[in-house]
Amino acid sequence: MLALAIWLWVSRRIFAIAVILLSTIVAWFAAEITAEYTLALIQKMLDEIAAPGKNFPIPTINFTLAVCGVLGGLAGSATLTFALSLVCKEFGAVEN
After folding, report:
1. Most-buried pick from 7, 21, 38, 60 (CB within 10 A)?
2. Residue 54 included in any domain
3. Summary mean pLDDT of the chain
């Protein structure tokens, strides 16, 4: 979808569109790997600091998956933004 938008908006070069499609796939994998790594790292830290068998009477809200999703999204969007800035100079132009 992003490649089609770039093609219709600023560039009709097939190379740019192919790079954008490829970078979108790479960005998705980067986001997934970052989220999985962050989840494993947070779980390891929690296992080290949490007392085993200790039940709290008040249920706590687990923000671990939200943090992992945010960091994964940051990695994916940064990868895609970097690829777009290399391939399509018109995309970040002020007049657009």
Report:
1. 38
2. no
3. 77
Chain centre distance of CA 51: 33
Q: Is residue 14 part of a domain?
A: yes
Report residue 52's pLDDT band, with 50, 70 and 90 as the boundaries.
low
Task: Look at the chain and report how many structural domains it folds into.
Answer: 1
- Beta-carbon contacts of 83 under 8 Å, excluding residues fewer than 6 positions away, are 19, 20, 23, 26, 27
Residue/partner pairs of 56-62 with CB below 8 Å, 24 or more apart = none
Alpha-carbon span 18 to 21, nearest angstrom: 5
With both helix axes pointing from N to C terminus, report the angle between 14-49 and 64-87 in degrees, rounded to the nearest 10. Answer: 160
Total-model pTM: 0.69
Which domain covers residue 78, as residue numbers?
2-49+59-92
Q: Is pLDDT at 94 greater than 70 in this prediction?
A: no
Q: What is the pLDDT of residue 46?
A: 76
